[in-house]
Amino acid sequence: KAGVTQTPRYLIKTRGQQVTLSCSPISGHRSVSWYQQTPGQGLQFLFEYFSETQRNKGNFPGRFSGRQFSNSRSEMNVSTLELGDSALYLCASSLRTGTSTDTQYFGPGTRLTVL
Amino acid sequence: AQSVTQLGSHVSVSEGALVLLRCNYSSSVPPYLFWYVQYPNQGLQLLLKYTSAATLVKGINGFEAEFKKSETSFHLTKPSAHMSDAAEYFCAVRGYNNNDMRFGAGTRLTVKP
């Protein structure tokens, strides 16, 4: 079974631009979660989507948004990029939502650099 | 709210020595605990998880962790370190009925030849 895939792997943008990152979950997985990883803040939960609905949201400004499609693929968007948005963005998929024992499988991440 | 604290941002061991990475959790209800490993420029890979079925959990690559409620700990161990174990390790906790994983700050493991 193919793992979680994320595209693109690397991205360079300038301040004020917007960016869209894509995540394809493992086949059959319906929950997709997004995390931001930075050296200063570590791994932080952004949001989770299940059945095309946002189920949970972390403590991030409204510039960060996402969506999920009927095939469970997910995208996250960051508008009006700031230097502090430079990070590794990780996507994780799991079978279900609201089931804490389910394993989250992570993709390789998208490295976003904001200049 | 659940949280985890990893003691030691950097641990260095010699090849063949015991690996011990510490994690303490804070939770008002029994938590679900996970250990993940991250190699450079890669995502996170699950090593093992505690879901209350057994207090001693065996994972991949020879790692194991023991859930100790009295100490609120979930330390990760491996009897004999290998060079390929050099990576960053994250402890994480998730509460009931949510997919919101809370991660520790991570511990970077260095293995010396």
Q: Mind explaining what this structure looks like?
A:
The complex is a heterodimer of chains A (115) and B (113). By secondary structure, chain A is mainly β. In chain A, 0% of the residues lie in helices and 52% in strands. Chain A has no helices and eleven strands. The mean pLDDT of chain A is 93. Chain B is an all-beta fold and 113 residues long. In chain B, the strands form two sheets. In chain B, strands 2, 4, 5, 9, 10 and 11 form a six-stranded mixed sheet that branches. A five-stranded antiparallel sheet of chain B has the order 1-3-8-7-6, with no helix packed on it. The mean pLDDT of chain B is 91. The chains are: A mainly beta (115), B mainly beta (113). Chains A and B meet through strand 4, strand 5, strand 9 and strand 10 of A and strand 4, strand 5, strand 9 and strand 10 of B.
Number of helices, counting only DSSP H or I runs of 4 residues or more of chain B: 0
Q: Which two chains form the greatest contact, residue counts included?
A: A-B, 30 and 26 residues
pLDDT averaged residue by residue of chain A = 93
Series of H and E elements of chain A: EEEEEEEEEEE
Q: What gyration radius of chain A follows from the Cα positions, in whole Å?
A: 13 Å
Percent helix among the residues of chain A? Answer: under 10%
How much of the sequence of chain B is in beta strands? over 45%
Instruction: Please give the largest β-sheet of chain A.
Output: 7 strands, mixed
C-alpha Rg of chain B (nearest Å): 13 Å
- The 3D shape of chain B can be described as globular
> How big a fraction of the residues of chain A is strand?
over 45%
Mass-distribution shape of chain A: globular
What number is the mean pLDDT of chain B? 91
Q: Unreliable runs of chain A, pLDDT <50, ≥5 residues?
A: none
